[in-house]
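Q: Structure for this?
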Amino acid sequence: MLRYIFRRTLIALPVLLAISVVVFALLNLQPGDPYVSMIDPQTSPEQKAELLARLGYSDPIWLKYVKWLGRALTGDLGYSLQYGAKVSDIIASRLGNTALLAGSALFLTLVVAVPVGLYTGLRRNSRADLAISMLSFVVVSIPTFFLGMVLIKVFAADLRWLPTSGVVTVGAKRVGLDHVIDVARHLVLPAVVLAASNIAIMNRYLRSSVSELLGQDFIRTLFAKGLSRRQIINPHLLRNAAKPLVTIISLEIPALLSGALLTETVFSWPGIGRLNYEAVINRDYALLMGIILFLAVITLFANLIADIVYAIVDPRVRVSK
Amino acid sequence: MRSKFIRTLAITVALLGGVAAAPAIAQENSVLRYAIWSNPNGTFHPSLYFTDYDRAIIFNVYSRLVTLDEKQGYVPSLAKSYEYSADGKSLTLKLRDGVKWHDGVPFTAADVVFTYTSIASGDYPLDTPAFAAQLEGFEAYNSGAAETISGITSPDDLTVTFTFKAPYAAALAHFADRPVLAKHVWEGTPIAQWAEATDLLRNPIGTGPYKFSEFVSDQYVSLVRNDEYFGGAPKIETLIFKVTNAQTAQTELLNGELDIAELSSWNQADLRTYEDNGAKIIEQTGVGGQYLTLDNTDSRLADPRVRQALIHAINRQGIVDSVLYGHGIVFNSNAHPDSPYYPADLDAYPYDPAKAKELLAAAGWADTDGDGVLDKDGEKFTFTINFPVGNKTRELSAPIIQQNLQAVGIDAELISADFNSTLAILQNAETPFDGVLMGGTFRPGQYGSDLWWERLEHDPKYVELAAAVNSTVDDGELRVAVGAWLREVNNEAVRVWLYIPNKGYALSPRVTNYTSIPYETFAGIENWTVAE
């Protein structure tokens, strides 16, 4: 098992390096430069060239990459011109907010999708199943930002129940339970939006996994042995249906972190997604590199965990590798 | 199974419902929430900032020597009075007595000397401001040959004299734009390291109406009232700049999460929604102009008749009427029509496609093969309009301009890209272009003598005219010099001036005694109040 983990980790490293090369090249070969928005647009080209030379912008791209890599290996991801702070510090400061949002969305996904998926899987082609299937397709087809705007219109603009942006009511200085409730109120809409399509997708996975299991011999045998529905569903069906869930959830985590870009932007939620958006808009290359690499690490790590957990749950996986 | 599912669902719904049903936001007294669309960089430093969002914070925390009034005249602030010498080369300012920095240290002339000397230093991390380069002794100090700059002197604690190489009228405009820095706070940090001095940048100490309190990056900046503000303690206790987006601002304002938000469009339905809900709409003359920058060195565009034809061909008033719903004005030279020196007799270039065709014909452009596109010496008149995305009004105006040009026989096409890519076209003198849709903010008292974008910066005619603008402080002479510059630019049609959108603000019903003027968004902020 350890050998397996070690080998998988070793494979991840060159992948990470390759990602960094590609992203670095893509960013730096774009027309325009990252300093354009911090220099007076009417500055003369001569003055500007001098300033850029001072900032090391005129180095050839390979040298820039080598410099960057050298620093990155020592844990220094560079300095964001836009935020005037170290990239690692900026990412760290947004991580909590994104984790809160992604965690809530994941929780919401599981709480809704698992029971609904089981229910529809057990009652395939019932009227409720068809209705839920239709709804799932609708939800999956709606773009995130549009769903966000619709919810804002209904729950914030018309009903005035929930706030639309930020993490807390600014200036209110709430503490203790009041603060928790305040954050929770701000969390509801973005978490629902972020969870919506995941619920629909996970529900579909579970539904097919459950209905497939129902047709399998060992479940039929259990029925034939006279076990009650409840006795079969709880220990046997759930455990087997949970296996694909492990994969989906671990693949979902990086998607939740990076896919929060639109949701976080619509709701002005100060997390990694919105940071990513701002970094793109401002051409904050150092910050963009940092964020993309961070997401790459998370993705590779989540895949690794998924493989390991899967190998534990289902030993056949290890043998076949 | 079914009961368990229903139970789970019920708990979830109850949880969400409970959260949703919490009471609507309580209206705290004396907190004003002001919307900003992007995170400030946290460069809260009067001479290093480069975004309007940082500027908003800086202009409330720091004070300036002079501020602007409604007619773009100078109003004393930290300076009690100012006077130019007879030859226009020296400007002496008497400072207000008894002013204190937010940390209690008295404000003196030494702070003023320190502030404006630092921007002339060779170590200053950005490009040298025009103001500094005009000071006497700039070269010696900038190169390190001299310890101090001879152009800034201070005979006593409340007097500062600036001496320039030549009469320099834009000095006061610079003071109105760049507040004074606290010497005792910044002198311990080498100037070369200012841009990285995050602790100091993020904890500004000023003399302004508000003291800096907290910056939560990507969320808000919070300021608290300075009870000892020399202009009188502000009425509102806490001023919060909330980072949000223009799409949700209306809902937030109507829900009480925001108190003031700049309007992002003049859409009638939006305005009605605001007003139906009790919000007030404030409208002001805009301070930023939009234009189609032309490459004056392009073989076709080098002919002024062709450039004039382009202006006549574009229905600029039509763009104001349709895209801005009439909330804007058209302008005709490189200055705001409200500028005190804007000549009344400029060519107004009214929308006139027939005249445009006439001018093009005079320049030798005719449709010889009958395909609807003008040609000359076998070359078709194609015209690429580059524009950056992000500004809604500009995006909407682009296809109108395209159609207008096509109507006079110019084969116009549109190319959009992100702002930096588009700006890169203009900034690289080697890149040829036809027209780029751009915009800029007018700075009162600073008459743009730069024609980099039009590639005319070394044209002796314009260099001379611009030099004349910066060589007198006599109001009458200045009027003549600025007028001559603006007339020449107008006459030559160096660029297509399009429109100046009006500025609009939505105010929640809580806000009273609100005053604000163009160029001075926070004028009179100490008198603003929010209802109990």
